[in-house]
Amino acid sequence: MRRILGIALAVLLLGGVVVVALAGGEEPPTTATKTVKGVIGSEKSEYFRDPDVVKALADKGYTVKTETSGSWAMDQLALKEFDFAFPSSSEPATEIEAAAGVKGAQTTRPFFSPLVVVARANAAKVLADNNLAKMTGKNSGTLLMGPYLKAAEEKRSWQQLSGSAAFAELTGTVFIKTTDPATSNSGALFLAATSNVANGNNVVSDQAGIDRTAPLMQKLISVQGALEPSTDDPFRAFISGSGEPLILAYESQVASLLQQKQAPGDMVVLYPDTTVNSPHTFVPISENAKELGSLLATDPKLRELAVRHGFRPQNGVPEFTAATAAHAAYLNPELTGIRQVSAPTVKILMALAARAKG
Among residues of the chain, what percentage have pLDDT more than 70? Predict the structure, then answer.
């Protein structure tokens, strides 16, 4: 009897082992998720916080954590603590590569955004009535950089512009509120565009060009008072109803706001007739993030989500146009009538920024 019980027990134990083995074999293999940490421009914060973006990245095996910094200040950070840097244009990317010791890294430009000037309706009307801007619709138009810079050179006030007396809020010197050009990408590229116009529609490329354009650059910056480190705060202030009547922003901020169906108030979007595009440039620092930039650029879901946040994917004009069709009254999807110019070298641009800040 004892022997029969022993055999039965052995059979049961063996069966248990087989069941466990079979149960284990039925479990799907798990994919290890890479957790990567990056430093990004503030204008991309909402994109990386979006639950749909988080899920799309997780589906591809990534958990992405981010911190924000002005793009031109990223090379001063302890970059070895990050897996990637994601400045707002290609110019600071070269400095970041050198500072991180990854010169020659395979950078990627997943999306870009042109600069725009966001104006109160009354301010846009006065600019247009004085030939400093040209309206293309109730909520959109073009900032005429030549006439605008002439007004800045003369330190013209709102009160000196015809028709401004009807709007009590328009007082003091006419200026566009920008970010700090020494640390923030949008502020630096504003100087790139304005110095081009001031230099006879040529990129500033030498000391003579710096000397020639620096006095006007200083007038554009010094009149503003305290400078913001990123575009996020001035844009939020504008949308809340406070802030200056003219602010520099990225088109992506406007397009994102409109697609989220947030109230734009009396906003008018003016595209400068001379501009420098802002190709957001992904710089991999560690091996863990090596493929992430390419994924952001090519994955259909991530491209769709980038457009939802107002960015233009590379070679993605049809995607952007289709997604923003309902908001064409504010936007210029084809960038019609806009002259796009190159930025000066980093050395020249930083010299201009230093001179502009006095």
Answer: 91
